[in-house]
Structure formats: C-alpha cells, structure tokens
Design brief:
alpha+beta; Glutamine Phosphoribosylpyrophosphate, subunit 1, domain 1; Rossmann fold; 2 domains; 7-stranded antiparallel beta sheet; globular; disordered N terminus
C-alpha cells in the first residue's frame, strides 16, 4: 500500500466542519521575564491560532523579534530562543490566517521604525475596509510588505500628521472599520485597544507591578496574574510609568461581542461577562433540552466541543450522559495518509466510537454548532455502523446561514449547510433520525436571561441573522489583495 506524509495544514480536510478561531494576543509591561511570560500566555491561547506565533520585546534601547510557523510549544519553550528576546516589555501573537496567506512574513507581531520611534503591534480580528484603505495608500506611494490587514493600521499610524503617538493611533482608528483588538508597544507605552462594538475580546490584568493585556483570562491564569476587567468596547488603555490610563475617543456604541466566543471560541475556563465560558455552554444545552427533548437512551457529545452542552442537556432532561465518542488528542502535526480508496475514513483519525456503549441505543448526539455538516455526517454513520438504534442530532445554537467578516475563518454562504438546505434536507444529508437546533430566543435566554433586542442586539449574531454591526465594505466590492511581488510566498521572508 502506498503511503505519503502530509503536513498539518492538510488536517483541515478532516476538521473543516468547525469554525476557525481568530488569533490570540498577549502583552506585558515592566517584567524581568517579559518574553517568558508572553510565551506562557500564548501557550494558554494556543486554541485561538495554530499556524504561527511570534514575540517582540523591547530592552530600553532595541527591539527584538522572533517569529515561527507552527505551535508555541515547538519554539518558545526553548531557553535559547527566549534569551534572544531581552527586555522588560514584550508582546506576542498566535496566528490563524483569516486575511493574507500563510507565510512567515505575515506572522505577527509586526514591527516598524517610525519617525516617533519603534512600534510593534499584534492584532486579533479583521478590518472590513482594509483593502479599500490599502488601495488608497498604495496609490499615495505606500509600500506593503505583507498581505495582512494589520499592516494597514501601521501605515495609517505612520502617515498621521499628529504629534503624539496616541493621537496618531486615534487618527488611524477613526479610519478603520471591523472587529478588532490590538496590543501595541512603543519605547514608552504598552497600549490595548478594543473596537467600538467590542466584537473581538481583550482583557487587562496585573502581575505584581506589571500590567498584562490578553485575549482571554485563561492567559492571565497561567502566569498567576490577577484579572482586573475586560477592556470596554471602544476603549484605549495606556500603560506608562507603571500606571494605567483609559480613554474613549469613539462615539458611544452599544456593546455587541461575538456570540461565538460564548458558544465555541473562548477556552471553557475563560471568564466572559463574569462567568466561565463552560457555564454558558451548559446553559445552552439546558435550553436546548427544554426546547427539543425526546425519548432516548443516551446523551452523547461530539468531543470536545459538544461536551458542556451535552452535560447541560442531560441534567435538564434527566437522561444518561455517556462518552459514546472518544477523541484522539494525539493526531500529530504529520500523519500517514492511506491510499485514495480509504481516504474518506479520515474522520476516524480523530474520533472513534465506544461500541458497547452505543450498541442498540437510541442516542441524542449533541454538538455546539453545524457548519458544513461533513464531519457530523461521518459521525452519525459511525454510530450506526457500531450498532446505534437511532441517532437524533441536536445543535446548541441556531442555524449558521451567514459568513463572518470580523476575524473568523468562515466558509462562504454557499458552503454553509443551513444556507443551502431546509431542516428536512439537512436531516436527510446527515442521515439522522431527527435534527433540531436551538432557537435564537433560546440562545439569548441561555446567555443573557432576556430576549434579543431587535433594534440593538446584545451580540454580534450575524451568523444566524445576517444582521452585521459593521458593513463589510471590502467584500461588497469584491476586492482581493493583489500580488505584492514576484517573491515566492514559500520564501522565509
């Protein structure tokens, strides 16, 4: 049998039924081991991006940068790498590409020498007008080295006529649109920024005399830092001379955080709105049971994403919870791919069924979301092959019908199963006995204990409603990044 080794990126073939996390950012001020602390923080945020990672430090005179493709643990656990990043200030970034190709030159944090001095920036999210701005800047003579929308922010800061850095930053922020959180470092300041709607997350914490910015509170926990609060929507927090200052330059907006932080993206132990993400996900499962319960023998989660919702469902419905599916956590960065005739069995690399548990049982299969449906189809088939009597699929969020433009790697509208098919057709595609989704009202009841405000929605819930808080300007005009140069993207540059 002919076999071949394939790289990690090809794992996407078997995991394309999940939304991709955005990116993770982390920054610290005034700490002797700043780079090591950042590496630990990025490790905690690894779930938010696995394609690349980078750290930039400042030693009082010079900036130091190390960037790598792959995982944090593969590179920044090496003491020799950390030694190359001296200084008391540092910022870091985990990347999952939502704009721009996967190459070393697109890995953040970015660094630039400006008239005011050095600037380093790490960005989580997407700008919805980056290409419009980029085209204007290129016509004016700007030179772009990457295909990342983050570089657009750097260019705008550099071109501002304002005197002070914060004023330059505000000048740039008023020109960009989208969902974003930023951590920036100059030779005097560490700065955190959250977009006017608070779509992308950012928190601030403290470790002795050091302040920390991070995408999630789990990154504070790993370094022993105290959680202070979430950065508010439209807020700029400035750390300088061991003091924290807040400014809010934008017109006041109602906060609309991304609802998928609650459903899927945030690590279960991270705090959002005063609760662990795990609690919200249990609530979603409980609400799902109230809406869609039926007679069955077992509640079985799709691991690991469906576990909290399944626990909530089982508790509410008084049904038995079982791990009818087991996830293989050790699918490595490379694996052996068999010949084409059995390649379709790839889902079994990650999941297998506990045969004696599911045999002759009527099963309620719980997952947090349904995107393309390809993986769910294979799981249902696997359960039936292992003797399940019935498989009823229950999804702990509403139907995903619309793409995202704020930093989530989302399939096109045409690729989304719920956009293309009716509930009945989706059920037939999955080969399930029945298929039910949590209602939009049920989602809001589980997360907010209140109904959706149709005028001022409490979340960015465009995935289900098509109600976008910010117009996706680039996508409406069908713009794409034009070729930057003839240099191969495979070049280490």
């Amino acid at each position: 049998m002919k076999i071949s080794l394939i790289r990690k990126k090809k794992l996407k073939i078997f995991n394309k039924d999940k939304l991709r996390e955005e990116c993770g950012v982390f920054g610290i001020s005034n700490h002797e081991d700043s780079s090591a602390i950042v590496a630990l923080g990025l490790h905690a945020l690894q779930h938010r991006g696995q394609e690349g990672c980078g750290i930039v430090s400042f030693d009082g005179k010079n900036y130091h940068s190390e960037k790598r493709q792959g995982l944090v643990g593969d590179h920044f656990t090496n003491p020799e790498v950390i030694k190359k990043l001296p200084g008391k200030f540092a910022i870091g970034h985990n990347r999952y590409s939502t704009t721009g190709e996967t190459s070393l030159r697109n890995i953040q944090p970015f660094f630039a020498d400006l008239h005011m001095g050095g600037l380093s920036i790490a960005h989580n999210g997407n700008l919805t007008n980056a290409l419009l701005l980029r085209n204007t800047l290129v016509k004016e003579g700007a030179i772009f080295r990457t295909t990342s929308d983050t570089e657009t922010i750097v260019q705008l800061i550099a071109r501002s006529n304002r005197e002070k850095f914060i004023d330059k930053l505000i000048d740039a922020l008023f020109q960009i649109q989208g969902g974003y959180s930023l951590v920036l470092m100059t030779n005097k300041k560490l700065v955190g920024v959250r977009d006017p709607y608070g779509i992308r997350p950012l928190v601030v914490g403290k470790l002795k005399e050091s302040f920390i910015f991070a995408s999630e509170t789990c990154a504070l926990d790993i370094v022993g830092a105290k959680f202070i609060r979430e950065v508010e929507n439209g807020e700029i927090i400035i750390i300088e001379n061991k003091e924290m200052k807040s400014i809010k330059p934008f017109p006041k907006q109602k906060e609309r955080p991304c609802v998928f932080e609650y459903i899927y993206f945030a690590r279960p132990d991270s705090l959002i709105g005063g609760k662990c993400a795990y609690e919200y996900r249990k609530n979603l499962g409980q609400e799902l049971a109230r809406e869609t319960d039926l007679k069955a023998d077992l509640v079985v989660p799709v691991p690991d994403s469906g576990v909290p919702a399944a626990i909530g469902y089982a508790e509410q419905s008084k049904k038995k919870f079982e791990l009818g599916l087991i996830r293989n956590h050790y699918v490595g960065r490379t694996f052996i791919e068999p010949t084409q005739n059995i390649r379709s069995l790839g889902v079994k690399l990650k999941l297998s069924s506990t045969k004696t548990i599911v045999k002759n049982k009527s099963i309620i299969l719980i997952d947090d979301s349904l995107v393309r449906g390809t993986t769910c189809n294979k799981i249902v088939k696997m359960l039936y092959e292992n003797g399940a009597k019935e498989v009823h699929v229950r999804i702990a969020c509403p139907e995903i019908k619309f793409p995202d433009f704020y930093g989530v790697d989302m399939p096109t509208k045409e690729e989304l199963l719920a956009h293309r098919k009716s509930s009945e057709d989706m059920c037939n595609y999955l080969k399930a006995k029945t298929l039910k989704f949590l209602s939009l009202d049920g989602l809001y009841n589980a997360l907010k204990n209140e109904k959706r405000n149709s005028i001022y929605p409490q979340f960015s819930d465009h995935y289900f409603t098509g109600d976008y808080p910010i117009k996706p300007s680039d996508n409406l005009k069908g713009l794409k990044v034009k070729q930057l140069s003839l240099l191969s993207v495979k070049s280490n540059n």
